[in-house]
Design brief:
Helices cover about 30% and strands about 25% of the residues. The chain has 6 helices and 9 strands, in the order E-E-E-H-E-E-H-E-H-H-H-E-H-E-E. With about 200 residues, it is of the alpha/beta class.
């Protein structure tokens, strides 16, 4: 079963122009990379993967289920099996980094949230800023917190928008993928993920 399938999809979004047509397939245990220059529509594509942006043409399917015309509850259930790290889904400004990372675990009623978040903070070297709010830390800390928030949940599909990828984060991602999950990652340079199963060139990349 493909976790994600995009077939000849074109997306229109105000301020971003047209993205596509795009073909992407992501299978369990894979890392697939989308390579594109700034402004090529990488974030729009990730939004399209979750049905947040509907394609003008073509088809998007999550877990073998076409997203077109799904009812709200079914779409939300599919999205719950995914984890997104993107500036398009920013951190909550009035919450600490710790609470931001823990939020999706609390919403799912997952046990052991404090332990999971504490371990992520330590591995990504965010412990010293965990009690601060997003506006009170460096941009790289916010980027790492977005990535940690995604990696905290037991998702089947990780959608990562130009993530910071220090060795600890790469190891965490590989552990998730080796357990049967998968990742679609947008980057500006092909060399960032030499281990990727496939690469998709977007726009003028």
């Amino acid at each position: 079963m493909a976790l994600l399938s995009i077939e000849q999809a074109c997306f229109d979004e105000p301020g971003h122009g047209t993205v596509g047509p795009v073909d992407v397939v992501v299978e369990p245990g894979e890392i697939v990379v989308v390579v594109g220059a700034e402004g090529s529509g990488k974030t729009v594509l990730l939004r399209g993967c979750l049905g947040l942006t509907r394609p003008r043409a073509g088809r998007v399917s999550l877990f073998d289920t076409p997203l077109a015309d799904l009812d709200h509850d079914t779409l939300m259930a599919l999205r719950a099996r995914c984890a997104l790290a993107s500036s398009a889904a920013p951190l909550v400004a009035n919450q600490t980094l710790f609470d931001n990372i823990a939020l999706p675990l609390w919403m799912r009623g997952a046990p052991g949230a404090t332990f999971v978040v504490s371990e992520l903070l330590e591995r990504l070297e965010l412990t010293d800023v965990a009690a601060r709010r997003p506006d009170d830390v460096l941009p790289r800390h916010r980027d790492l917190a977005l990535l940690a928030r995604a990696l905290a949940v037991p998702a089947q599909l990780f959608l990562l928008d130009e993530p910071p990828i220090p060795s600890a984060a790469r190891a965490l991602l590989h552990a998730r993928v080796e357990s049967g999950a998968a990742a679609l990652i947008t980057v500006r340079h092909e060399a960032l993920f030499p281990e990727a199963a496939r690469r998709v060139l977007l726009g003028a990349a």
